[in-house]
Amino acid sequence: MSVFDALTNRAKHGDFPFSPGADEGDEDILDTLKKDHDEVAEMLSQLVKSDRAAERKAILKQIKTALMPHLRAEEKIVYNGIYALKDKDAKQDSAEGYMEHQLAEKMLATLEQIQDAMSPEFSAGSKVLKEMIEHHVEEEESNVWKDVKRHFTSDDRMEMNRKFTAMKKRVKVS
After folding, report:
1. What distance lies between CA 64 and its chain's CA centroid?
2. What is the domain partition of the chain in residue ranges?
3. Least CB-packed of 49, 59, 122, 125 within 10 Å?
């Protein structure tokens, strides 16, 4: 049992019944998260810059498809992992991440409800979503990642990555 499983008590409770394939291998979870963050950042930039309604709606759908599995898996694997530590600051970083994820989800839902993708409301909402996620990623990549690096070994982070990747595949986006 890895330190990660011992700390989070996940293995004992069967919360991680994944058997990832070899292709998900030996990458550090922080490398995978960085790739996801960069992918979503690019889509958010495209959303804000787009001047066509159909394209905006399509990009918004792509963002949701990429973001929702990332959020769920990150909460389960990373945030729960650091919340289980006996480190007050790490617990706060985890709680803050959860709250920021909730806000991003609400903003996504709000944008989906706006019929006119060329309206000032949709434009404003797209800009707010982009700024919220940029803020979240900036803090996460400094605070949360520092917690992960401090408390989890390289082997733990590779195991976290395997579980994160498997969990993302299981998340259904509606």
Report:
1. 11
2. 3-8+24-170
3. 49
